[in-house]
Amino acid sequence: MSIEVRHLSKHFGAFQALDNISLGFPSGELVALLGPSGCGKTTLLRIIAGLEYADSGQVLFHGEDSTGKHVRDRNVGFVFQHYALFRHMTVFDNVAFGLSVRPRSLRPSKADIARRVHELLELVQLDWLADRYPDQLSGGQRQRIALARALAVEPRVLLLDEPFGALDAKVRKDLRQWLRRLHDELHITSIFVTHDQEEAMEVADRIVVIHQGRIEQIGTPDEIQQQSASPFVCEFIGQTNRFEGNIKDGWADFGDFRLETPPRLQESAKLAGYVRPHEITLHNQASDNSIPVTVASLKRLGPIIRLGLVSTSGQDIHVELASQQLPKDTEVGARLFATPIQAQLFAV
Amino acid sequence: MRQRSVIPGFGLSLGYTAFYAGLVVFIPLAALFIEASNLGWGELWQTISAPQAVASYRLSFGASLVAASLNLIFGLLVAWVLVRYPFPGKKFIDALVDLPFALPTAVAGIALTALYTPNGWVGHLLNFKVAYTPLGVVVALTFIGLPFVVRTVQPVLAELEAEIEEAAASLGANRWQTFRRVLFPALLPAMLTGFALAFARAVGEYGSVVFISGNMPFRTEITPLLIITKLEQYNYAGAAALGVAMLLVSFALLLIINSLQHWSAKKTGGK
Amino acid sequence: MAGTITTLGNSHAPRISNVTQESRPVRWLLISLAIAFLFLFLALPLAAVFSEAFSRGWQVYWQALQEPDAWAAIRLTLIAAGIAVPLNVIFGVAAAWAITKFSFRGKQFLITLIDLPFAVSPVIAGLTYVLLYGSHGPLWSWLSEHDIKIIFATPGIVMATIFVTFPFIARELIPLMEEQGTSHEEAALTLGASGWQTFRRITLPAIKWGLLYGIILCNARAMGEFGAVSVVSGHIRGQTNTLPLHIEIAYNEYHFAAAFACASLLALLALATLFVKSLLEWKERHERFLASQAARKEP
């Protein structure tokens, strides 16, 4: 089931949550809506679900306009950030709820419901918890029960709002991989909202970066990382070093070093160059493409070394490299030369 | 107007709420204002400022102020003891604090009168009169306002983290300094809210007071009783005038209570 | 230190360490003062009710309760509460639903209006109904034409009772439903439940204890109301006297034992109310405690 949204706008009072968003979600993909909090990603998810109505624009399910359809009739599975499990029902009754509220003519028999619930509980590997109440479960267990409950109604799409947001770091990592495997098994079109770029990179087929109610970029994790569409995306996706310069004689010139420019940039434009910590090499000798730096800090994290450098003009530069690539006898206070290998360039 | 919502029943629930609240509260109160306005300003003022009325305000507000102050001091003490110290029978006492909410005021009235008449259990121990004096009114109003301060301070006190007191102690404050400079400011909004609630309740109280006060005009006649007296003399406009005066005071108190609660919530980091 | 079971009831109680503890004499002084105050103002009046009720023996006690006027008063009290409480339950649920599940203009005004009967003197409550429906009021000619009696009759007593107990249920439910938010209802809707199914199977079970709590308090006030009912009743013996009014008349006629006998019934109702209330509060704390325990353990 593919989903498409066209020209969605939504405001709350004076706050513009979504500003003319158009976007397609291909069938069977797992897509992440990624952005800082308050960027509108949850609002977009809730509008797709039918929990919120847009001021203008359309939502299409499989090419069919569903904008005016009630959430009840959209057949979406929604997993809430804090799970929204029904506290007064057992795990079994929670998962069975969607089937048991169907009109009598469409409702499966009691035995069918029980079988389906146990299938789902086995799928999330929690069959042994069927008789417990949500208050007796851990956070990770609640999360998986919430997912089973959403899947019980055989939804056409699965929508997850910050599915790992309320969990602690270790459980979060485990559940991420588990969700990815589950998706590979079920192949149901899924969208999840997150503010954690690492989570989006690890789990999603495709990432939609949203900022201030607008789409900044849509792409695979690699594309987002390596061909960022804007300075915002560059800065949001992991650590990076920003250099300022301009275009001279067809080169991107940053004073100490210069790089090739892509043809889309105009001569003499002001530039921002983003260089990731692992895209810098360090040398003992100066070259015509290097920045003189002093080592301010040095941390060994297993096979990787993290360095904090300060250039002669006072800029902080972060570098990450494999320990064998570090020049010999480097220690705090040493003077070195840093060479950016590649950068993402934007006119500013 | 409102954000469209998927949750059903907005029209039905709000429509019914507005209809019922209008019927039960709004229209009757409007009738009170209309009746009072029949008097015209001059006569309205004359009724409100008549010496008997003024004497009743003095008693109603004065006694309420004294009672609410007593409740402020002892309410803080009771809340403190209930939250901080373990002692036998604590749960029972905690439950009993709400008795004035649950006990009908007429029952409280005759019980307190029986206790404080000169030959009552408490009255015969005292060498001054309580029942049928303004002091009796204070006793009754203290009873009915008792739970307010306790119940507003108790949760705030329970939520205070032990760390802030430990921090104060580690910085060299003694116990009294810690209470006065750390705990007291944190409890103050809740205390004032409880005080205002007790005061507002006391000003309007009728049932528990009429038995113990003796109802002598100019001496032990509270304003609500004066309203009833006027009503029994078929002086509807006069009763309405006093009613409006009291109602305006209630509005003002409600406003103060609301802003106090707002302040309290803000200070304790609540919603 | 404390065992796991005894800390259950007081899961809110802060840790008390030595530096933040008063000395033993100060502690006992404060406890004694508090208990003395509560003894004087709560325990003694309660004891006085029962002591006076039985001061002239069981015989007189039973006789006082079997008097036809007393029976009529009990019946009227039950009728008034029996009508006022259910009506206020329906209102309270509707009001809390509208206020907590939706945002709309004028919400604050509505909340203030709901609070108002708590701030208004019961005497004024009664007065407004007399002014509106009494022989002096704007509706009188229409009412008497259709032979409807409100003031000095049962309808007026019921209406006055509704007024003074009006906020109880709504006030109890609004903070509760505010805290619960709307995500459970939304979850039910995404799973295909209808509006009615959502209310009956999700919302109602989630608020049932809070609702019961409100009903208990509302009922206690409805059965015990004196001021408002006194103004509209007219004190017609055997017809428009509720139990509190019956107590007043007996007391003013110096039938003290009879007055206190009836008062003891209402005092028992108050004690029962406090008991159920404490039970509900304990249950709520207990559930919170269990929930916090479970949240702490990870798989």
From TrEMBL, chain A:
CDD domains found in the cross-reference section: ABC_CysA_sulfate_importer
One Gene Ontology cellular component annotation held by this UniProt entry: ATP-binding cassette (ABC) transporter complex
Gene3D superfamilies to which the protein is assigned, alphabetical: P-loop containing nucleotide triphosphate hydrolases
Domain ABC transporter: 3-237
Regions that span the bilayer: none
A family per Pfam: CysA_C_terminal
Molecular functions (GO terms): ABC-type sulfate transporter activity; ATP binding; ATP hydrolysis activity
Annotated NCBIfam families: 3a0106s01
Protein name stated in the entry: Sulfate/thiosulfate import ATP-binding protein cysA 2
Natural source organism: Alcanivorax hongdengensis A-11-3
Automatic annotation (TrEMBL), chain B:
Compartments, as annotated in UniProt: Cell membrane
Domain ABC transmembrane type-1: 57-257
CDD domains: TM_PBP2
GO molecular function per UniProt: ABC-type sulfate transporter activity
Record has DNA damage as a keyword: no
Mode of membrane association: Multi-pass membrane protein
GO cellular component: plasma membrane
Annotated signal peptide: none
Transmembrane intervals: 12-34, 61-83, 95-118, 130-150, 182-203, 234-257
Key words, A-Z: Membrane, Sulfate transport, Transmembrane, Transmembrane helix, Transport
Keyword Phosphoprotein attached: no
Family the UniProt entry places it in: Belongs to the binding-protein-dependent transport system permease family. CysTW subfamily.
NCBIfam families: 3a0106s02 (TIGR00969), permease_CysT (TIGR02139)
Subunit structure: The complex is composed of two ATP-binding proteins (CysA), two transmembrane proteins (CysT and CysW) and a solute-binding protein (CysP).
Role summary: Part of the ABC transporter complex CysAWTP (TC 3.A.1.6.1) involved in sulfate/thiosulfate import. Probably responsible for the translocation of the substrate across the membrane. Part of the ABC transporter complex (TC 3.A.1.6.1) involved in sulfate/thiosulfate import.
Protein name: Sulfate transport system permease protein CysT
Organism (species): Alcanivorax hongdengensis A-11-3
Automatic annotation (TrEMBL), chain C:
GO molecular function: ABC-type sulfate transporter activity
Key words of the record: Cell inner membrane, Cell membrane, Membrane, Sulfate transport, Transmembrane, Transmembrane helix, Transport
Superkingdom, natural source: Bacteria
Gene3D superfamilies the UniProt entry points to: MetI-like
Membrane topology term: Multi-pass membrane protein
Localization (cell): Cell inner membrane
Membrane spanning stretches: 28-50, 70-97, 109-130, 150-170, 210-236, 256-276
Residues covered by the ABC transmembrane type-1 domain: 74-277
InterPro entries in alphabetical order: CysW_permease, MetI-like, MetI-like_sf, Sulph_transpt2
GO CC annotation: plasma membrane
PANTHER family recorded: SULFATE TRANSPORT SYSTEM PERMEASE PROTEIN, SULFATE TRANSPORT SYSTEM PERMEASE PROTEIN CYSW
Subunit structure: The complex is composed of two ATP-binding proteins (CysA), two transmembrane proteins (CysT and CysW) and a solute-binding protein (CysP).
Function: Part of the ABC transporter complex CysAWTP (TC 3.A.1.6.1) involved in sulfate/thiosulfate import. Probably responsible for the translocation of the substrate across the membrane.
UniProt cross-references to NCBIfam families, sorted A to Z: 3a0106s02 (TIGR00969), permease_CysW (TIGR02140)
Protein name, as recorded: Sulfate transport system permease protein CysW
Organism: Alcanivorax hongdengensis A-11-3
Lineage: Bacteria, Pseudomonadati, Pseudomonadota, Gammaproteobacteria, Oceanospirillales
